[in-house]
Amino acid sequence: MFLLGIEFVLAGYITTRVFEKIQDHKENVPKDRTDTTALVQSTELTLAVKTSEREKKLHYIKVSGAAIGFSALSYLKPIFLPVALLALTYSSIPYMRLVEKSIVEKKKVDGYVLYGIADLMTLGLGRLITASFGAGMVHVAGFIISNVQGRSKGELADDFSRQSDKAWLLKNGVEIEAPLEKIDKGDIVVVNIGDIIPVDGAIIHGTATIDQRTLTGESQPVEKTEGNPVFASTRIVAGGIQIRVDASGDETAVAKIMDILNHSVDFENKQLQGEKWADKWTWPVLALAFGSMPFLGPVQTVAILNAHIAQNIRVVAPLSTLNYLNLISKKGILIKDGQALEDLHDIDILLFNKTGLRPEMVELFTDLRKQRERQLAIVSDDPLQPTRELAEKLQVDTYFHDVLPADKAEIIRQLQAQGQKVCFVGDGLEDAMAMKSADISISLSGATSVGSDAAQIVLMDGTLAHLPQLLDIANRLSKNLNRGLLLNVAAGVFIVACVFVLRIGILPSMILNEFGLYTGLANAMLPLLTEKKKTIHS
User: Transmembrane region positions (predicted)?
Assistant: First the structure.
């Protein structure tokens, strides 16, 4: 009977997919099937209802609950069995799409496939309630994680969301309040004490003290006067100024930063650390599960499959990265690519363009050397003598002199050929080729050119002052990711041990696997909780 249940679930899924493809063809709607969110969204063709991600997860939780109820009733009255199977099929569709994507598009066996095998085996063994419970647990975990990720992304955007939708426009000596969309380049805008600057531009009259920590991470407000640039979303704490508009709305630096942040926290299609770890564990778990099947039986085989870390680590590792991106944005550092922050810990050599370096940076370079054993190097277009003097003053390990701009990229490639992972620190515009050649690139161009900057990381104040903090946070992220991996692996090993020693079944293995997820989730949230405690005590 339950083999027929497997056929029912598969037939239901295939029918749904065929219907969706027909709808796709009719409506000619391109569908992006790159991640869980996009895959779940395709069920909206069947429901003809567009809901938020949170509401969709709640919807699937309710359906899973119904599946559990009807599954229990089916043991008393078999007439409820088709309804239970229908509810289970429907609640499993989002996950089945991930299995399909792995097999058909990626052409590989990964953790999603293992879980899919485990779910079908659970159903085939007659554990309909357990199969429905497992589907429900996936959606409950997804609901909780979606909320946590939403809050983290919201906090990340909040720092840059202080923008006015109106401005005081100076026309013929008269100040007129105008909607921001009516402000054009070259207009004169008046901003006074307490106001948020609504545009990017240059001061043409007046002096003001401006709090621009949201952009640069500077703890103290800075005084600016005629000729100095100012940026939207910063606040005047003293004085008043007139600004000639260079950019407004979507063209401001803060708007471009928010767009970059949206992409930096969009981890789909990126081989982040969690994805790499999950892939490495697939075949060992698969071999152990089916290799022990003749000795333990099919129930324990499914229990071992449930010990795979794929689903958990794919969630908690990106969440850790997201939370550290949140922290680092408050330091005046813009990360364009979350993977760059993950990889920064493994850099072997920091290669600095000499422009922007000064002899008085000795203390800063001392801090850099203390953090981790990595080489410090300088590349300069100056002759040997001045380059060597600066290198000796800053106590760097290596220096290159008389280097033309086009040759910087070649030096980076030579270092990489020696097995070195290179982080290049320079100007995001002038050093674009070197930036692209390096494993990781850090720009000192600041907020003015953030949209066209070639670097993966931008120091928004245009100085090296926050570089030690950047490297420290990268090191802390690496430790957090490794701890998250250890917690999930420990849960998986414990499940396998319980299978061999205690012969635990499918349901206990599911619960223990969820425990690993939530301990990993707590670890991922640790940096934000720690930072909030520091803020409260300060």
Answer: 485-504
Statement to judge: residues 124 and 193 lie in one domain: no
Alpha carbon distances (Å) from 218 to 57, 148, 331: 40, 28, 8
Q: Which residues is 166 bridged to in the sheet?
A: 179
Same domain, 239 and 146: no
Identify the helix (H) or strand (E) that includes residue 141.
helix 128-158
Q: For residue 98, give the nearest of 30, 13, 5, 20 by alpha carbon.
A: 13
CB neighbourhood size of 87 (10 A): 23
What residues are paired with 245 via a beta bridge? Answer: 201
In a 3-state reduction of DSSP, which class is residue 222?
Answer: strand
| Domain containing residue 217 | 166-197+199-247
User: 223 and 139, same structural domain?
Assistant: no
Residues 147 and 180 in one domain: no
> How do residues 441-462 score in pLDDT, each as one tens digit?
998 877 666 666 678 898 888 8
CA distance 373 to 370: 8
Q: Which of 263, 255, 246, 264 is nearest to 160 (CA)?
A: 255
Report the alpha-carbon angle 228-230-234, nearest 5.
145
CA distance 118 to 131: 9
A 10 A CB-CB count for 211 gives 17
> Is the dihedral angle over the CA atoms 310, 313, 315, 317 positive or is it negative?
negative
| In-domain check, residue 532 | no
* pTM for this entry: 0.78
Cα separation of the two ends of the chain: 64
Which residue's entry shows tokens 């606040």?
235
Q: Which amino acid is at 217?
A: G
Query: H helices then E strands: how many in the chain?
Result: 20, 14
Q: How far is CA 372 from CA 270, 328, 344, 472, in A?
A: 27, 19, 12, 9
Phi and psi dihedrals of 468, rounded to 5? Answer: -60, -40
Looking at the fold, whether 395 and 353 belong to one and the same domain comes out as: yes
Q: Which of 457-461, 520-524, 528-532 has the lowest mean pLDDT?
A: 528-532
The CATH code of the domain that includes 242 is 2.70.150.10
The residue out of 158, 180, 209 marking a domain boundary is 158
Each residue of 8-50: pLDDT tens digit? Answer: 666 666 777 666 666 666 655 444 433 433 323 333 333 333 3
The answer to whether residues 220 and 133 belong to one domain is: no
Among the three residues 417, 450, 465, which one is the final residue of a domain in this structure?
465
Burial class (CB in 10 A: 0-12, 13-18, 19+), 28: exposed
**170 & 118 share domain:** no
Q: Measured between alpha carbons, how far is residue 346 from residues 367, 417, 422, 475 in Å?
A: 18, 16, 9, 9
Question: Residue 288 contacts by C-beta under 8 Å, 6 or more apart in sequence?
Answer: 304, 496
Q: Please state, as a whole number, how many other Cβ atoms lie within 10 Å of the Cβ of residue 138.
A: 23
Rounded-to-integer distance, Cα 483 and Cα 476, Å: 10
Query: What is the three-class DSSP state of 245?
Result: strand
3-state secondary structure of 408: helix
Token look-up 């290799």 returns 291
